[in-house]
Specification:
Layout lengths: L2 E3 L2 E3 L3 E3 L8 H9 L4 E2 L17 E3 L4 E3 L12 H8 L6 E4 L4 H12 L5 E5 L3 E2 L5 E2 L4 H12 L6 E5 L6 H10 L4 E4 L3 E4 L2 E2 L4 E2 L6 E4 L4 H14 L4 E3 L6 H10 L3 E4 L2 H5 L3 H15 L4 H4 L9
Parallel strand pairs: 3-4, 3-18, 7-8, 8-11, 11-12, 12-17, 17-18
Antiparallel strand pairs: 1-2, 5-6, 6-16, 9-10, 13-16, 14-15
Helix pairs in contact: 3-4, 4-5, 5-6, 6-7, 7-9
Bound molecules: flavin mononucleotide.
Flavin mononucleotide binds next to strand 6.
Length: 302
């Protein structure tokens, strides 16, 4: 199911979510060979960072809770990864983050020069100039990051939003006004916490973590639905998408592409080909197309 996204042809409408499989070329290529149209890299930050201590990821059955803590070698320490990726035959979406607008600009400029097809701004990270408030919960902060990055890169910029925003549609609109070429929604939900009742202590070393997987799908569908009403740029919809029917649901909310993260854990790396087949089968059974069903759930709003 070939598709075109912001001028780049993609073999399928499925996107690998950032952070689930890292930045190694061999794994990103394997994902692409298994039916993912656009692999996204793990978010790259301004300086080396270890992330949080273990345990960082717990499977809850209906999804996962994680407090990985954005570990990164730092954008200046990835020569080997970029060198390998240079010879690739597949498109990539490079995810980045910073602790200030200036850091986002620094990382974006360098990363865009390494040749990814897209750059994704993970604005679900704390803004050190604003006492750690997430960039993505405030329309002005979101606008500032996107506008500053747009001024220094010439590849399409995707703003990745957090469901922690009180009004995610307003954040999406601010990103669109700042020049974002697309929106990606959602990052993990929460934060949540699990407590081990025998030790009477939180299980994660960091105590709180972001939720992902099937249990957050209704939040993702609601966010994409709200964003679709507010912007005209395309949306990558993700959050709990595990089956072709889940993908159809988020497309009906308004997504143009569909991201898959935690489902890789539940269904393995072949999840992409399987979801593609399930989407095709559903469309065929209902004698319809992706274009016809995109945003279908909004019929009564228009
Ligand atoms: C272990 C783990 C690491 C993640 N790392 C990142 C990251 O580095 N950058 C980012 O933007 N999102 C990151 N995410 C969020 C995912 O990209 C995705 O937005 C979220 O998990 C919801 O999708 P899912 O339910 O399909 O996993 C991570 C998620 C998990 C589970």
């Amino acid at each position: 199911m070939q598709t075109n996204f912001l001028g780049t042809p993609l073999r399928t409408p499925l996107v690998l979510a950032s952070g689930v499989l890292g930045n190694n070329k061999a794994i990103l290529e394997r994902v692409w060979e298994n039916g993912c149209g656009l692999p996204t890299m793990k978010s790259i930050g301004p300086a080396p960072r270890d992330g949080h201590n273990n345990p960082t990821v717990i499977d809850l059955g209906q999804g996962m809770i994680n407090a990985v803590g954005l570990p990164t070698p730092g954008y200046l320490n990835m020569d080997a990864e970029w060198h390998e990726l240079n010879g690739r035959k597949f498109p990539i979406n490079a995810s980045i983050y910073g602790g200030s607008v200036a850091e986002f600009v620094q990382v974006a400029q360098f990363v865009a020069a390494q040749g990814p097809e897209f750059i994704e701004l993970n604005i679900s990270c704390p803004n050190s100039d604003k006492h750690g408030m997430l960039f993505g919960v405030n329309p002005d902060s979101a606008y500032a990051v996107v506008a500053a990055v747009k001024a220094v890169v010439d590849i399409p910029v995707i703003a990745k939003l957090t469901p922690a925003a009180p009004d995610i549609a307003a954040i999406a609109k601010a990103c669109e006004d700042a020049g974002a070429d697309a929106i990606c929604a959602i990052n993990t939900a929460g934060p949540g916490m699990i407590i081990d009742i025998e030790s009477r202590m939180p299980v994660l070393d960091f105590k709180k973590g972001g939720l992902s997987g099937p249990m957050i799908k209704p939040i993702a569908v609601r966010c994409v639905y709200d964003i679709y009403n507010a912007v005209s740029i395309p949306i990558i919809g993700l959050g709990g998408i595990t089956t072709g029917e889940d993908a159809i649901e988020i497309i009906m909310a308004g997504a143009s592409l569909v991201g898959v993260g935690t489902a890789v854990r539940y269904r393995g790396i072949t999840v992409f080909n399987r979801i593609n087949k399930e989407i095709d089968a559903w469309l065929c059974d209902h004698n319809t197309t992706m274009d016809e069903i995109r945003g279908a759930a909004h019929r009564e709003d228009k």
